[in-house]
Write a structure and sequence with these properties.
Layout: E1 8-13, H1 21-33, E2 38-42, H2 45-51, E3 54-57, H3 84-96, E4 101-106, H4 108-118, E5 124-128, H5 144-165, E6 168-173, H6 180-189, E7 193-195, H7 203-216, E8 222-227, H8 233-244, E9 248-252, H9 264-282, E10 288-293, E11 296-301, H10 302-307, H11 314-323
Parallel strand pairs: 1-2, 1-4, 4-5, 5-10, 6-8, 6-9, 7-8
Antiparallel strand pairs: 2-3, 10-11
Helix pairs in contact: 1-9, 2-3, 5-6, 6-11
């Protein structure tokens, strides 16, 4: 049952930006407006919350956000939120600004801030947005599909020159602690091998042997995908060239993976999640994180969600290992 006592909510984006964040903001503002709820956009994440850096958002004001990458509210790190004084200041600012709830769009660290605020009496809802797809309680996080497509497009272009010069290309993609992005990209580009932080593999059998077998099968160029959390791409390239004699070059895609127009999937799922976040607050619930399971949107207690462990898709990993060469 919806609680009409909700009159004003805040929304902020925190941590790394992800394509589709703007679509989620738009959905939150539009969903709130239909219920006569005003929305305060908190700029620059939790730092903006502490400093009162906010702007009123209207339905008309979020026109044109769907195709825009990044976040119109900006984002920033905020070490002060890790202190009791900072948390108390943030909670008091929410009360001072008349917020009946706060929606936090971001990743794991952002949700820990939302959890701490909820324990201070501020109703909070988390919306998962990170290109790493590493939020444990949801199958999907906003930005993942776009980041995959951006990396794939870059590697497809890179392949043209690698093939022309019969080289090996070592490509580093994002993923400090999780290899979901690297795994999906590796399968999609037909990589010779994919190196992930979750798997401590034997270098010879995982990298050198597939290259050798590829050459025997007539393959004149090779692509190795490295998740940044696995290790340094240059170290991988040095070992490959020393063991095979193949001219090996390194490409680090870096923050280009965070940008760009969000894909249809990211726009749709972000819109669903933003709508659901407002509904959660209207239902009088707090300390929740929106989750995407299968083809439906649900929600979990933030503390419960953060306590889970998310594993790689082992079926996809087996596929990648089988068809790599």
């Amino acid at each position: 049952m919806e609680h009409q006592s909700i009159k004003r909510v805040g929304v902020l984006t925190s941590g790394g930006d992800a394509p589709g964040m703007n679509a989620a903001i738009r959905a939150i503002v539009r969903s709130a407006a239909t219920r006569d709820i005003s929305v305060l956009g908190v700029r620059r994440g939790f730092s903006g919350l502490l400093n009162g850096d906010m702007v009123e958002l209207s339905g008309r004001g979020v026109n044109g956000l769907l195709p825009r990458g990044g976040t119109m509210l900006y984002t920033a790190r905020c070490p002060e939120m890790h202190t009791d004084e900072g948390l108390e200041k943030a909670a008091n600012m929410c009360r001072y600004m008349g917020m009946d709830g706060l929606v936090v769009i971001g990743g794991d660290g952002s949700f820990r801030g939302a959890l701490a605020l909820s324990q201070k009496g501020i109703p909070t809802v988390g919306v998962p947005a990170t290109i790493d797809n590493d939020i444990v309680c949801t199958d999907y996080t906003i930005g993942f599909d776009t980041a995959c497509n951006t990396a794939i497009d870059c590697i497809d272009k890179l392949r043209d020159t690698m093939q022309s010069h019969e080289r090996c290309s070592v490509v580093e993609v994002m993923g400090r602690k999780a290899g979901h992005l690297a795994l999906h990209v590796g399968v999609a580009v037909g990589a010779t091998c994919t190196l992930l932080p979750e798997h401590d593999t034997d270098f010879h059998s995982a990298v050198i042997e597939p290259i050798r077998m590829g050459r025997l099968n007539g393959r004149n160029h090779h692509v190795i995908i490295v998740a940044e959390g696995y290790g340094h791409a240059q170290d991988v390239a040095t070992q490959v060239e020393a063991a095979t004699g193949i001219d090996t070059r390194v490409t680090i895609l870096g923050h280009i993976q965070r940008g760009g127009t969000p894909s249809a999937q990211d726009r749709v799922i972000a819109t669903q999640m933003g709508y659901h976040a407002v509904k959660i607050l209207m239902d009088g619930k707090s300390q929740r994180v929106v989750a995407y399971e299968g083809r439906s949107v649900t929600d979990y207690d933030i503390e419960e969600g953060l306590s889970r462990e998310k594993h790689l898709d082992l079926d996809l990993f087996e596929v990648e290992q089988t068809v790599a060469t």
